[in-house]
Design goal:
single chain, 158 residues, alpha+beta, Arc Repressor Mutant, subunit A, 2 domains, eight-stranded antiparallel β-sheet, 31% helix, globular
């Protein structure tokens, strides 16, 4: 874990600027509202920002592991725990739904968005977790096949 050095503050920590943080907030607002990963053009238009500045912020945020971009595109793939693209993990709260990157993230979306259900559908196998009043049912175990220290070696696989 990196610690701040004397004279260093959190706004300069690891190369993320105040503007980057504003862009990240807008990314989350967009994902929550639309259930889709936004592009640079969408975020720039939503806030009236210069697209080139938003693109630079997207790439800084990605290099700092704050978001993941779709390969070869300036569009958000992951804004953890949300997925900006369709996956096998759907989360439903009321009449809204979002995709998550994995089972663990699906429970994270439920923690953020409220009581609902998370569905993991892979081939013919479907698992459904429900959350009501902060309690997950059924009980179970989520297996993470990759150690946490290796998640970012291939975050798309992880």
């Amino acid at each position: 874990m990196r610690r701040l050095r004397p004279g260093q503050n959190s706004s300069s920590f690891r190369g993320v600027t105040p503007f980057d943080r504003q862009v990240r907030v807008q990314i989350y607002r967009h994902v929550i509202a639309s259930s889709e990963g936004p592009s640079v053009a969408q975020i720039a238009a939503e806030r009236g920002w210069a697209p080139d500045e938003v693109a630079e912020a997207f790439h800084r945020l990605a290099s700092e592991h704050r978001i993941v971009l779709v390969p070869e595109e300036d569009r958000v793939w992951m804004a953890h725990p949300f997925s900006g693209v369709e996956t096998g993990y759907e989360v439903i709260v009321g009449n809204r739904s979002w995709f998550a990157n994995c089972a663990w993230d699906a429970l994270g979306v439920l923690a953020l968005m409220g009581d609902g259900k998370a569905i993991s559908a892979h081939g013919e196998t479907e698992l459904v977790w429900s959350v009501a009043n902060g309690t997950v049912s059924p009980d179970g175990v989520i297996h993470l096949p990759v150690p946490a220290r290796e998640f970012w070696d291939d975050i798309g696989f992880t």
